From TrEMBL:
Family listed: Belongs to the phosphoethanolamine transferase family.
Keywords, ordered alphabetically: Cell membrane, Membrane, Transferase, Transmembrane, Transmembrane helix
GO biological process, one term: lipopolysaccharide core region biosynthetic process
Pfam families documented for this protein: Sulfatase
Domain Sulfatase N-terminal: 239-474
Transmembrane regions: 12-31, 43-63, 70-90, 110-134, 146-166
Membrane topology reported for the UniProt record: Multi-pass membrane protein
A molecular function (GO) term: phosphotransferase activity, phosphate group as acceptor
Main location group: membrane
The protein's name: Glucan phosphoethanolaminetransferase (Alkaline phosphatase superfamily)
Subcellular localization(s) per the UniProt record: Cell membrane
Any GO CC annotation of this UniProt entry: plasma membrane
Species in which this protein is naturally found: Dysgonomonas alginatilytica
């Protein structure tokens, strides 16, 4: 037997090595999934073997393609590179939210992330190409039957998945209905974690593209106010409302929230002077596409369809008689190709600046659009603190370096982005005050989600830092009962920004019934994760 093994090794060294690497990657990729305990089990081993058999069969069949096999080999190498790079960099397989972010992330942000992953991606791709090429060279000479590997590929890619999906949808009528409405989503949900390398990410991509197609169908659907929400009028409401949406901003790195480095001197001073309200807040999602969707619409972790059924925040302002403005420092995506694009399309005035401006420049644009004769709402989407950090601050933020101990210099680049955002809020407030008119104004600032510093966000089982965000309100020439309004939505003293739209609605003349507010408060303990599942904050990895 040892002699036979030695013969196989000498004849197929690249094939054996690559197959072992496939198996180890497939096995490791299941460890961070909630469906499995973080221990090797028979289930881990079985599905890793099935994943390897499928990949081996595909490579074998590629080796038998006479002329164009190299094209399929490169395509397979690219797919495996994406999966393996994500696994190496973040310790998890790619999930639905990750695929969606790849498609919806703007070019500038994507290039920044690509640079962050370049250390892994280039050597992984080259290794994949070399290993698969050598493997196909060896298998091309083998006398194994093509029909056997066609059958194996069909069993692994079609027969087993069908059996698993059919078993899953029989669990309840809810699962059957979900499958009827979103078949590809259910398929990727059931199959994705069992085939983490190669096949799973392709299924997830197909499910995302199908979701986008369905979103296009819903885009022009007439939306209405939710039951329990009613417009009462603009009397006593602020004439100008500013909604600043930050990016990847972790509140535990704000001196306003107790951080020992003075990252937010302006906000600190406003709080000392009792001109600012702040709350400990959490985001309902760790990806921008999901977080913005749920903070600027009535969608919740438990009911995403409300995004299409009810008016979003921009539409609420339009209906109330405000002129609306969407000023973004991020790239413009297809108006109906993303959740954010669909919300932005409702504004009367839309600008996207493709990451080409400093966030401070957005405030100058907003100031130029201000008209004291109108009721106005400005939605200002910052680039904030997204990776890479160095280009999100300037030399004036270098003042923080004096406050940093040597053993924490790794946080300096990120903390400078927080300091820069503090200056953005200050610039907006200074413009409001300098007008010296009697116009009433209200500034809201919150971040889409938090950040695991130098890693990013949107990772399953990677800690609560992805969700910890600031939430701030600054009124000017305007009085309102902040505590009465915010207390309706607090859970254990914490505000889930899924309820921001409710706060916003009350600020522009809408009344919300107690029954509606109670339902909204019940959404507070939950978040919507990258695997498109709903979790309780009490269960999150600290």
């Amino acid at each position: 037997m040892l002699t036979r093994a030695k013969e196989l090794y000498l004849k197929y060294p690249a094939t054996l090595l690559t197959t072992i690497l496939f198996f180890l990657c497939s096995l490791y990729a299941t460890f961070d999934c909630p469906e499995y305990a973080a221990k090797i089990s028979l289930a881990h081993i079985f599905w890793a073997l099935v994943n390897v058999i499928l990949l081996f069969s595909v490579v074998f069949l590629i080796s038998k393609i006479p002329r164009f096999g190299i094209i399929f080999l490169i395509i397979l190498s690219l797919v495996l590179t994406v999966d393996t790079t994500h696994l190496m960099a973040y310790g998890t397989r790619i999930m639905f939210g990750g695929v969606a972010s790849m498609f919806e992330t703007n070019r500038t942000e994507a290039m920044g992330m690509a640079g962050h992953l370049l250390l892994y991606g280039v050597p992984v791709f080259l290794s994949c190409v070399v290993c698969l090429y050598c493997m196909t060279r060896e298998l091309k000479k083998s006398r194994l039957k093509v029909s056997v590997f066609v059958a194996l590929a069909l069993i692994c890619a079609i027969v087993l998945p069908i059996a698993l999906v059919m078993k899953d949808v029989q669990r309840s009528d809810h699962r059957k209905n979900t499958f009827r409405e979103y078949p590809l989503f259910v398929i990727q949900e059931v199959i994705g974690y069992r085939y983490p390398i190669g096949y799973g990410s392709l299924l997830i991509t197909a499910a995302y593209l199908e979701e986008t197609r369905k979103m296009n169908q819903f885009a022009d659907k007439e939306r209405v106010l939710p039951e329990g929400v009613e417009f009462k009028g603009l009397e006593g409401m602020p004439q100008t409302v500013y909604v600043l949406v930050g990016e990847s901003s972790l509140r535990t790195h704000y001196s306003l929230y107790g951080y020992d480095i003075p990252t937010t001197p302006f906000l600190d001073s406003m709080y000392r002077e009792q001109q600012l309200y702040k709350e400990d807040a959490v985001s309902p999602a760790s990806l921008t596409r999901d977080a913005i969707k749920m903070t600027l619409s009535f969608a919740t972790p438990n009911n995403q369809n409300l995004f299409y059924e009810n008016n979003n925040a921009v539409e609420l302002a339009n209906l109330a008689g405000y002129s609306t403005y969407w000023i973004s420092n991020q790239d413009k995506l297809g108006v109906y190709d993303s959740n954010i694009g669909l919300i932005a399309s409702s504004a009367n005035h839309i600008e996207f600046h493709n990451y080409k401006k400093d966030d401070l420049e957005l405030i100058n644009i907003v100031d130029s659009l201000y008209n004291k004769e109108k009721h106005q709402v400005f939605f200002i989407h910052l680039k904030g603190s997204h990776l890479p950090y160095p280009d999100k601050s300037d030399e004036r933020d270098d003042v923080l370096a004096k406050s940093f101990p040597e053993d924490r210099k790794g946080f300096l680049s990120y903390d400078k982005t927080i300091h820069h955002t503090d200056r953005v809020v200050k610039s907006l407030y200074d413009n409001i005050v300098s007008r010296k008119d009697s116009t009433s104004s209200l500034v809201y600032y919150y971040s889409d989600h938090g950040e695991i510093i130098e890693t990013g966000h949107g990772f399953l089982n990677h800690g609560i830092e992805q969700f910890l965000i600031p939430f701030i309100a600054i009124p000017h020439n305007f009085q309102f009962s902040w505590q009465d309004m915010i207390n309706r939505y607090l859970n254990n003293g914490e505000f889930n920004s899924v309820n921001f739209i409710n706060i916003f609605a009350q600020s522009i003349g809408y009344s919300l019934s107690d029954e509606f507010a109670d339902r909204a408060k019940s959404d507070g303990p939950y978040y919507y994760h990258v695997d498109r599942k709903v979790y309780n904050f009490n269960d999150i990895k600290k």
